[in-house]
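> @MW can you paste both from yesterday?
MW: sure, first one:
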Amino acid sequence: MEPAVEAAREPAPRPVAGSGLNPAVERYYDITLDLYEDLWGEHVHHGYWDEGQSPAQDGADRHAATDRLVRELITHAAVPAGSRILDVGCGIGGPALHLAGPHGCTVEGVTLSARQAARANQKAAEAGLAHHARFHQQDALSTGHPDASFDVLWAMESLMHLADRPAFFAEAHRLLRPGGTLAVATWAVRDGALDPDEQELVRQILLHQVMPDFSSLEEHEHLARTAGFTDIAVADWSRAVANSWDPGFARIPQLDRGPAAMRDLARARGVDVLGFFHAGPLMKKGFDTGVITYGALRAVKPRP
């Protein structure tokens, strides 16, 4: 165990950014698709608990907690039933299928990963929702949809992978109809200066999760306002979702298989796959120390 853990603490290159970011994100999710689905099920995102609850104490099961996060964002953003929705960073379609099923929406999902898009379309067909939820391998900033195409733009845990966040908010504003809603759930970083140890923790998380940087919840609100959105509401859900990185819930195997096993996995899938195994302890420490935060944002495109 120790050699693998120590290797994660050695100096490493800065997180990928620029023109290499999208291919890196695509590669990461292509090679980890089965790992996430086998361990996390249909929802590849955090769970949500009431104050005082935890997976260990109350036995909240994974699907209930992750499904609740979807419902909490629907409520926070007041997503109307029957909406036409663009799901940015749709993953394997868990939230989109909830929106298309129980919420009666029509959803177009986009992801950088061809394997995720294919799996999401397969799941939609199996659920009898193929006519209401379709998934594509596309860059969220260049989908080709005309202005005012959607009632809701939904982005659950995808903004962290976008280097140009002002462009995201501007594109969301363009794509939404007047009166349309932007619904965001995202990892974030504590507002204000970080000390060197905190900076190093953030750097390691960014590196292993293939992300360019983090914005604070306050920065997300500012970006939405600058893009022209109004009726902005931001909620800090850090304490509600932090249990997602409890070892019993995250189910990410510990780095106890030895360096030889890790090397074999890296040879088979590429070194990026190792970020999957490092994620749990890093994210838990981030939430425990308050360096990593999590929040929801609702914003409305004003009517003329």
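MW: second:
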Amino acid sequence: MEKKDQNDKSKSIHDILPLELIHGILLRVPIRHLARLRCVSKFWCSLISDPDFAELHFHHSPAATNACFFMENPTMAYLVYLDDNDASQKEVCPPCQKKPPYDFEVLGSCRGFILLDRHPHFLVVWNPLTGFSKRISYSHIVPSRKYLDFRLTDCTHLHGFGYDASQDDYLVVAAWGDSESQEDHLECLSLKTNSWINLDAALPNPLGIYHGRSRGLFLNGAIHWVSSILKDYRDAILIFDLKERTFSMISAPEQLPTSAYFYPSLAILGGCLALYYHNNDSYKTHIWVMKEYKVQCSWTLYQIPSSGGFQPLCLSSNRYIIGRFYQVTGYFMYNASGDLLMNFKNLCCSFDATETVYTESLLRLPSNIKDKDN
């Protein structure tokens, strides 16, 4: 019987597998497990913590996970993971809890970061997976210091959170009106330079029609809004290109209703822009998905049976529609034909709190200024 080499016991995985193979394997590990794998060795910790690795994993990992994030109360937040046959949830602690008040509102998410509004007049950008957070004031937008309870949603007609790949910078865009000068302003918060920038882009007129749907959605390098009431399908969706710093419009489907009680909303489903609304005549939620970005003829209709409003949140790995109903507990999964496939009843679900669909990542905020984790 052949004797084993005594040196085999001292060999590590790095002696057996080449670095390129280890790197390739880790890129395929689900993001939630990567955080724990950093404890395996100093080498693995260094590799997983590298910004280039985080960027590659975010773009190329086949196991990207969508979660519904919401705040149940000022000190408790949840990530609800939804997929084809399984669902789970995780409690996470919001940042900046060293002293009261802990008053948060969820404004959106982008590439693993969640944007929060914190009383009084602060924005907090937070990565729940890494724990990193950054706080920036927007007090100059508030109409007067006496309005201590004003939030960004109260002060602005439009706001949105996105990423400018050309500058490697995360941006918060806010359009607001000055009550004293009666002038509208467009400002952009650069998280890379930690500063607000006044933009000269021509604002849509009238700006106030977007106030009821002031929160924008980030897709394809631009932030998207839809007005509170649509009277014409043409020029229905407003977009702001973060690279060019310009506004433009996208037409909605021609078949949209013209009722005065028609209140559309936007969603991102499987990387595609979607417009949805409740149809009172058919008792269904109509979901129009733009299969090809900015291609008018690519709008495709899906219908979900509902006596009340259905809110689509994301697509599962098998491209089923996952969402929830207003004032109904749990999350629901439908196929393209509108058939109910599954009801996740036992998951946390907030009726009145703001929420966002969140994709986990290990990404860091780029910065020209040295930031410390809060």
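> thanks! The first strand starts at residue 66 and ends at 73.
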